[in-house]
């Protein structure tokens, strides 16, 4: 036993020395070294990376740009036409065309106690949102998506753990829910290009997301059916909000600016698409999530 402990201790010391040497070597060569998984340049586009390259070369620094989450240079990805892919937050095979023919008026009438509890919980949450954001639909959408991306991740995580505990298949639900969370996150990445949230709105995101994550986690443990009903009614409210967003765009109250480049690539939109086109496809996504939940 003493021999084993001694050997283990020596091995740990050796590994520690190698790690320290690697960090020092990277620092000596002018490389960025990720600490505790801190995100570094993961959301830069190709053009922004080139600007960083030019700046580094002018400063005499390292010309290589590392664009992945962990500081490891990712594989070069290209579009179908052979041009470089410029987004780090999603890949070409994750893009799609939204189904705009989906029924937007479908409504699940609450019948059981859990249905009514979910319905009125969502209705009560809408009031403070209306008061806080008024008709600032860009920032409203930003806030909505920071919350909407939580349920899919929580549900997928809990189903994943359940599948591991019971040694059983999930019937495809884990991937479905995680894909939903990823889709909602891309909605946020898009609206971040459109709206410029104020400092107090960013602070509100921390508070709301922290409260909602824990509340939804506990609700899912207590009753997955209730949790999914809540999401379904949240998506119905999202459809309503984006419909109002479209009305303001049509009135001219909100400028119908060109669509962000990230939205054009993600939803495979025409190059001349506008903000209205983006809101249309996002609303269709929300309708799909409503039906799933």
From TrEMBL:
Q: What class of enzyme is it?
A: oxidoreductase
The family database entries (InterPro entries) matched by this protein are listed as: AOX, AOX_sf
Q: Which reaction does it catalyse?
A: 2 a ubiquinol + O2 = 2 a ubiquinone + 2 H2O
Enumerate the Gene Ontology biological process terms.
alternative respiration
Q: How does it sit in the membrane?
A: Multi-pass membrane protein
- GO MF annotations for this entry? alternative oxidase activity; metal ion binding; superoxide-generating NADPH oxidase activity; ubiquinol:oxygen oxidoreductase activity
* Keyword annotations from UniProtKB, A to Z: Electron transport, Iron, Membrane, Metal-binding, Mitochondrion, Mitochondrion inner membrane, Oxidoreductase, Respiratory chain, Transit peptide, Transmembrane, Transmembrane helix, Transport
Q: How is the cofactor bound?
A: Binds 2 iron ions per subunit.
Give the family this protein belongs to, as stated in its UniProt record: Belongs to the alternative oxidase family.
Q: What is this protein called?
A: Ubiquinol oxidase
Name the species this protein comes from: Daucus carota
């Amino acid at each position: 036993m003493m021999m084993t402990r001694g050997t283990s201790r020596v091995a740990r010391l050796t590994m520690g020395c190698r790690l320290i040497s690697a960090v020092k070597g990277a620092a000596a060569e002018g490389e960025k070294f990720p600490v505790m998984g801190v995100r570094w340049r993961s959301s830069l586009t190709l053009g922004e990376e080139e600007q960083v390259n030019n700046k580094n070369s002018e400063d005499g620094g390292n010309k290589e740009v590392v664009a992945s989450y962990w500081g490891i240079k990712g594989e070069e990805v290209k579009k179908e036409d052979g041009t470089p892919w410029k987004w780090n937050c999603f890949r070409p095979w994750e893009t799609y065309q939204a189904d705009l023919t989906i029924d937007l008026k479908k409504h699940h009438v609450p019948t059981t106690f859990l249905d009514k509890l979910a319905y009125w919980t969502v209705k009560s949450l809408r009031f403070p949102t209306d008061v806080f954001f008024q008709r600032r639909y860009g920032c409203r959408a930003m806030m909505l998506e920071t919350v909407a991306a939580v349920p899919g991740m929580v549900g997928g995580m809990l189903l994943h753990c359940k599948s591991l505990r019971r040694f059983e298949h999930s019937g495809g639900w884990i991937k479905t829910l995680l894909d939903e969370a990823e889709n909602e996150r891309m909605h946020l990445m898009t609206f971040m290009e459109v709206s410029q949230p104020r400092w107090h709105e960013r602070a509100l995101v921390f508070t709301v997301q922290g409260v909602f994550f824990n509340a939804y986690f506990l609700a899912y443990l207590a009753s997955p059916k209730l949790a999914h009903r809540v999401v379904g009614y949240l998506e119905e409210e999202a459809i309503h909000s984006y419909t109002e967003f479209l009305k303001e765009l049509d009135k001219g109250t909100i400028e119908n600016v060109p669509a962000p480049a990230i939205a054009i690539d993600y939803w495979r939109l025409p190059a001349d698409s506008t903000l209205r086109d983006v809101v249309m496809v996002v609303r269709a996504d929300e309708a799909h999530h409503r039906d799933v939940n």
